[in-house]
Structures are given as C-alpha cells and as structure tokens.
Specification:
The structure holds three protein chains of three kinds. Chain A contains four helices and no strands. Chain A is mainly alpha-helical. In chain A, helix 1 packs antiparallel against helix 2 and helix 2 packs antiparallel against helix 4. Chain B contains eleven helices and two strands. The radius of gyration of chain B is 30 Å and the shape is extended. The termini of chain B are far apart. Among the domains of chain C are: 231 residues, no CATH class; 76 residues. Helix content of chain C is 73%, strand content 3%. In chain C, the strands form two sheets. A two-stranded antiparallel ribbon of chain C has the order 1-4. In chain C, helix 20 packs parallel to helix 24. Classes of the chains: A mainly alpha, B mainly alpha, C mainly alpha. Chains in contact: A-B, A-C, B-C. Chains A and B meet through helix 1, helix 2, helix 3 and helix 4 of A and helix 3, helix 4, helix 5, helix 7 and helix 8 of B.
Chain lengths: 122, 290, 692
Amino acid sequence: MEELFTPTKVLILSGALMSIGVYGVLARRNLIVMLMSLEMMLVAVNVVLVLFSRMHASEGMAGHVSQHTYEAAFLGAHTGQIFTLMIMTVAAGEVGVGLAILVALYRSRNSIDVDQARELRL
Amino acid sequence: MLMGKAGVFIAERSAQIRPFAPLTAIGPTDNVTPLSGVFRAHIMAEIFVVSAIVSVVGAVLMVARRNPIYGLIFLLVSFSGAAGVFYSLNATFIAVSQILVYAGAIAVLFLFVLMFIDLGKKGEDKFPARVDSLSTYEPAAVEEGKISEGPRFQFSYPAAVVAMTVFALFVWVAASLPEETFDKFDPVPIHGPAGPIREDETNSKSSPIYFGSTAAVGRAIFERKGPFESFALHYEVVGLVILVGVMGAVILGKRIGDEQREEQERKLKAAVAGADGHDDHGHDHGHGHH
Amino acid sequence: MGELLTSFLLSAADTAEKSGNVCECPHMAKLALTLVPLLPLLGFVINAFWGKKLTPKASGTLASLSIGAAFVCALIVTGHYVWYANGVAVESYNVSWFTSQLFGKEFDVNLGLRFDHLSVVMALVITGVGTLIHIYSVGYMAHDKGYWRYFAYLNLFCFAMLCLALGDNLVLLFLGWEGVGLCSYLLIGFWYEDEEKAKAGKKAFVVNRIGDLGFLVGMMLLAWHFGTLDTAELTKSAGELAKNTAELTQNQWVFNAACISLFVGAVGKSAQIPLYVWLPDAMAGPTPVSALIHAATMVTAGVYMVCRLSAVYALSTWVLPAIAVVGAATAIFAASIGLVQRDIKKVLAYSTVSQLGYMFMAVGLGAYTFAVFHLMTHAFFKALLFLGSGSVIHSLEHGYGHGNPDSQDLRLMGGLKEKMPVTCWTMVIGGLALSGVPIFAGFFSKDEIILSAWLSELGVGKPVWILGIGAAAMTAFYTARLIALTFFGKFRGPHHVWEHAHESPRTMTVPLVILAIMSVVGGLVNIPHNLAHGADNFAQFLSGTFTTPSFAQSHGEHDHTSAEWGNMLFSVVIAIGMFYAGFKYYSRDGALSRADAKASAGLKPVFTTLLNKYYVDELYEKVIVRPIRIGAQLFFVFIDMLLIDLVFVNGSAFVMGALSHLMRRVQTGVVSFYLYTFSIGAVILLLVLLLW
C-alpha cells in the first residue's frame, strides 16, 4: 500500500475532490448544496497545500550546517500549512456571508433555486 | 496487510507509543523512543489510503444525494476523511483544525440554515439536476408539478465533462511530481546540526517540537524565519476579513420589519423628490459699466 | 499672541543656529522679508474666497492693509539692510522647491527671497506705489460690483510682482513673471462683459506669450551652461567667466543667444518694438490698474530682469548695443504716436512705452543705475499721471455714465482746473516731471540717460543720443498738450457733464498728493555731481550691484563736467521750450480743431499715419494674425473636427458601443450560464498556463 502514498497520488486525490466540487456547483441548483460543493473545492486546495508543505519539509532540510538556517528551513516549511489555516478562516467567513445571502434570497422569493433568480441581466 | 505489520510493532512497542506526537517524530528524541521510520511510513500509508477513500466517497455521495440533509452528513464524512489525509501528511494541527472548523463550525452552520428554511415535507430538493443547463428553465413547470421529482440521482453530462477536464488537469500536473513514496522522503529529521528544535529556542530544557505540531505552526506564524517574513500581520488581516464577513452576514440576515421598510421607502422617495425639486440658481457674478 | 510670536522666533533662531546657518541676518529681518510677498497673498486669499461677503469698503481696506503691511515689512528689511547688513544680502528662509538632474549635474531650485541693493528699489516702489494705488482704488472702484474680485486680483498681482523682484532664482522670477502676466490679463479684461475689453486682455496675454517663450529659452540656455539659476550664483560664475577669455570666446554664441532670448522676454513684458502693441490696448482695464501694472511696476519687469542679470549681459558682445537701439527707437516711435492721440489714457500709454524705451536705452548703454533710477522716478510720476487721468475720468463719468469712451476723449475736455484743482496741479507736477523740467524727478533721471548716450564709446551712442533728445522733445510737447487740453481753456463737452464734474474724494486725492511730492523730491536722491559734487548718492548706492560691460567701464576716468553741463542745458532748453510751446498752443480755445484743420491741409499723410499708430496693428493683423487664424481654422476642421472629434472621440465611442452591444448578450442573468462560462474559462486558462 506504500506505493499509493506518493505525492502523485495525493495530488490525484485532491483533483478528485476538486472535480467533484466542480460537478456539484455546476450540476446542482440547490444553493445549499452548491455552497457545500464550494467547500469541497476549498478542501481540495488545502490538501494540495499540506502536501507541498510536507514535501518541502522532506526535501529542503538536508545538508544544513548551521542550526539557524536549519531552523529557518524547518519553520519555513510550514508556510503551506499556514496558508491552509488562512483559507479555512476565509472559508468560514465566506460560508457565513453565503448562508446569509441564501437566507435573504429565501426570504424574498421563498426558494433557494438559483436558476429562478435571473433578474441580474441587461 | 495493515494489521500484519502494525500488529507486531504495536505489540513490541505499545508501552512507548504516545498517541500523536511520536508519530511525527523520527529518530531519537529526548524522552520518547519513537517508532521506526519504516513502521511509521507504513501506518501513514494505511491511514492515507483509508482516509482518501472515505473522503472521495463522502464527496460523491454529498453531491449525488438530492436531500440536502443527507448531503450535509456526507459532507461531514468527507471532511473527516480529509482530516485523516492531513494527519497522514504529518499536519497534525491542520487535521485537528479541519475537524474543529469544518466539521464543528461550518457544517453546523449549514445545518442551522437547513433547519431554518423550509424545503417541503420531505425536505427534498425538488429541483432536478441541471441536465441541460444552458437551456431555458421554466420555474412555473416545477410549481405546477410538471417536472416530477425524478430519480434520486440525476446525472448532468455537461457538468461531468467540465469536472472531468479539471480532474485531467490535476492528473497531468500530478504526473510531473516525484514518484517516490513518502518513506523515501523520510526521515523528516528533527535534529539539526546542534540538536532538536525546541519550543523555546533560548531554553535548551524546553521540549522538542515536531513538524506540523501546534508549537511548530505557531512559531512558523509568529516568527521571522531567515528569508521568510513572519505571518503575524497576515494573520491579523485575516482576522479583520472574517470580522467584516460576520458583520456582512448580520446585515444581510437582519429581517426588516414591515413598518421599518415602509419608513425606509418613504425616506428614499422624499430624498429623490428633494433632489429633483432643488433648483440651483446661478449667482450673478456680473460686473462692469452699464 | 505676543508670547506665541516670541517663542516662534526663538525656536526659529534655535534651529538656525543648530543647522549652522552662517547668515547673520536676525530672524526679524528674515521674517519681515518672508512676509513681504506673503501678506498680499494672504489678502488675495481672503478676498478671493470670502470677498463676496465683505462690503466694498472692507474688501478695499483689507487689500490696502495687506499691501501696506507689506510696505512696512519692506521698510523694516530696508532699514536692516542699509544700516546693519554691510552689503550682505538679506536672505529669507530657504526651502528646496525641487531637485533634479540637468545634463548630469545636480540642479536645485529653492523657494527663497533675496534682498539686495536692487531689491530695495523694487520692493519699496512696488509696495509703496502699490499701497497708494490700493487706497486710490477704494475710491475709484467704490461703485463697481466686482470690487472684491478687483482687489483680489490686485493683491495677487502684488504677490507675483514681489516674487519677481525678490526671488533669488530665475525660476521663482519666472513664476512671478507669469503671475503678473496673468493678473495683467485678468485686470485688463476686468470688465469682461465688454467684448472689446476682453479682447484687449487676450491680446496682452498672447503677445506676452511670445516674449515668455524667449525668456524660457534664455533661462534654459543659462541653466544648461551654468548649471544653476540662482541669480547670485549666476552673477558669480559669470564674473569668473569674464576673466577666462578663451572659454568666453569659445562659448560666445551661448551668451549672445541667452541674452537676446531673455531680452525677447523683456521686450514682450516691457512693451518694446515690436511687441509693444498690447500696452496701449491694455488701457481697457480700470485706470488704477494702468497706473500700477502698466506704468509703475509690471512693465518695468523687463528692465529689472536685464539689470538683475547684468553680469551675464556683460559676457555678450552685440546684445547690449542692440538693446540700446531698440530702446531708443521705441522711445521716439511711441512718443511720436503720443503726439496726436485723442484718448487721455492712450497718450499716457504711449508715453509709458516711450519711457520704457529710455530705460532700455540706459540698460543697453551699460548705465544700469540710471535705468533703475529712471524706473523709480517714472513709477512715481507716471503713476501720478495715470491716477490723475483716472480722477478726471471718474469725475466725467458722472455725466457720461460709466464706461462711456467719451469720458476719456481729450477733445471733450478742457477747463477742468476750476472743477478739480487738486487733480489739476498734481498732474501738472507729474507732467513737468515727465517732460524733464528741472527740479522735478524726471529731469534728473532722463538727463543722466541722455548724457550716458552722449558719453558712450559705442558706435550707436550718438544716434541713440539724437533719438533720445528727439523723444524728449516730443515727450515735453505731448505732455503739455495733454495737460492743456484737459485742464485749461474752455470745456468742450456737453453742458450736463460740466455740471456733474467735481473733485474726487479724499481717498483718491491723498495718493495723488503723495505721489506729486515724490515726483518732486524723488529725483533729489541722485543729484548729478556737476550740480553738487559727490552727491549722486543713488548711483553710488547701486553701483556695486551691477557688472558694467567693458565698453562702459572707462567712464569715471575722464572729466566730463563740460559735457555734462552742455548736455543738461541743451535738454533743459528743449524740455522747457517744447513744454511751453505745447502748452501755449493747446490751451487756447479751438486749438484742437485748428490743429486738426492745419494737419489735414499740409501734413495730412503724416498726421493720419501717426493717428493710426503707423498702421502697425493692421500690419500685424495681415501678416501674422490672419495666417495664423486661417491655419487654426484648417486645423480646427481637419484635425479637431475630423480626426479628433469624429474618428477618435465619436469613433471610439461607436466601436465601444458596438462591442458592448455584442457583449451584453453574455449577461443572461442565468446563474448556471455564468458558472459554466467561469469554469470553462478557468480550465482554458490553466491549459494555456500548462502548455505555455
């Protein structure tokens, strides 16, 4: 099973999650499910970032002579994880606003079918 | 396969295993005898495969189920799987955050909203999938019941084509990555030239930190790391962003009472009328002899 | 308030000490110098933004106070400079304006003021005469609707003029130069509802632009060669260069080109041939404006600028003689036109052009001190004459109505001595000063200029002397004609106008009297030394300021006493004789009609040519203005209307409109459509990125 645990396979997992999210956003017209699919896509991105952080930690840390540069490389390898954290935070805000819009939409037209809301045109 | 190898090691070393931290540590540390690299790589590989399958299956079901409640439950399953993937990639802190933030907060938020809005008796999404998304869609047809609720799962070919293209792109990029498994990358050394990296770099007695642990991520965020800037400011800004998001959500979600709305409309009308009625008389700047 | 000021001064002193400023000027003097231009600016700002809410009197008082305070400040600086500074120029607080690279060298321009010998004269004349004219204007403009606009412009003018006169570099000088040009335009076209007047303003502006181009070219040449535009540094490097003959001859063309370019600027601003045409038309503005801008201060800016750059002019070869010739030609040319003009202000305008010609004559002969001396005395008596004529016009306008050109027509005046004695006698003093009758100011200054021409070693010296003497004779004649026609004889206008005529209010007569006193005593600062030995104080005061060109340096070595006496007697005889003749001829009744008849009989061609100002305006109209107009019309039709309007503006609007008409079809309002296009677009973008 070890041969499944390669960077390539992790990236393929991420692609699978991403394409499922894309499919959900495109195919579904229920706004809640669309938002959920959006979250799925964000998670796919997070997987990629964590993967690269991990690769960075493995590859960039050999051959350091001074403790200081070693430590810098060690901490710097966390950058991908930090980005993941920020994406999570922004995603939380995005879901909050998105759901508030959803509620407002539901109030105004008693439906959350996005295809019914088509006034936004010239 | 999993049980075969792991069972032996667990039997041998069970007394020395600490639940989380030692798994990320390779090589000798001060007070913990870690698992061997080979064993660690195996167990991580098992965790990854299981989590990945759980995550993908959950995601597929989330998209496929027409009832959003079920969809939400499968979303939770998928998020948990993703957390497992994070864990297998040594990102302990991120894995826990994934559970806390997504499964804990965001999913519950979705649930609240689902409860809040009434989606009919069966709580089902009564709209079929966008099979032919670019064609015109008649909401009236659904209202009148002309479009049946249809099967539980309806496939949309155009969406699938786009999604598969995206997947193909990922596979393409993935093919360029190194093919070594993560045990070839290993070990992630935690020993620098002058010993392990510690929670407090000035104190040699403080405990060593592991890649992806809370302490390491914390130091990575708030410390300047050689050529890398500290992320403290970015972190603060993200806090502001989420604050603004919360405020926006509050404003959007506020229910305006009928009286209040009428008053607002009246004010708006008055303002528009005032702007039209105001006549700007040009002042006479004229001079000179007559 | 006082404490605040004290603490401010102390802290300023502290910072100056810390920064190691070597100038020993006390901060009182520095502050006063800085305030000299800033006070009128303050007055301008207040009048421009809140003037409409003030009463005419408050507005005028404010403006007069601000320029009066500037006068006091100028007096303070002068006092410090004359008694304590030991000839070291007072410099204001200096701020860097901009810094740049010019031909590989550092090129710094500062915002700073410098107060030296020349500035003493300029600053006192500008603020002193300016104050009197502001006070006069309070009475003159009392009934005008645009009083606040008028005073705002007037204060702005004073600010710009003081920048011009006190600025320590040519860039600041140019700022003032353009500023006074702008204010001149604004004030000539002050009554812009009258199209003729608006056009006169436009003409002044456009003609001045030609000169300004020359000024700019000259400035750039200087900056290119010297790497600085600070006047003191220019003087210093020019002085060093004068000793280096090799380099001087090698770069001779640069100095000649720079000097002649700068002189073109001066020609435009100071109304010399061929760019004098705007000044007579500029009389369309209110009369105090003519007195301040078009007689006393702005038009002398060209003279001032050449004097300021005397060191640079000393490096040139043929430019100074050319200036002398242009000045002398202008002097006699304008004086001859002035002989027959029928508009009281036009006569004075041509007289101004003529007197400016004298100043340039002196400059060209290297007699800078006498140019500045004449500049000063001219400021007094010509301002006096203009203000007097304004008083007459103001009085007659009660009968004719405001803006009626009849109120300026000499043929409809006469005998006003009885109605307005103060105006009459002050104007007589001004007239005598202008004619160069002894004791009065103009005598001393003009006599010195004519003497310089006689003594000059230049080849052009003698011809210039002849032209100068001729112009002096004409000046005395037309001045006497002006005064006689205005104040003596019988009134020739309608009866009701005579009834309404009256002496002007106190605000107008007091400045007249003060200026009359100055016109008498103003010349006494420089009594030539053949009259009182060693008394030419003014010339001695200024002598160190200027770099005398080589051809004028041997002046002091010979004893010219006999030439001085001869010259003086000759010019006095001519001045008094011509003045007497003119006065006698024109003060008799019906003199004007007789003169016209006689002229039409024998001298008709000459007379009409003079009356029509040598047809110069008509010539310019045919040769310059009309071709430019036709060219502009062509450009308007083909470039502006066809190319820019039709093709660029409307064309781009049409293309955009057509494109957006296509693009609006994309805005379907269907969310799924947006989602599909978005994702497909993203996929395509990624593909492009990967395949690149």
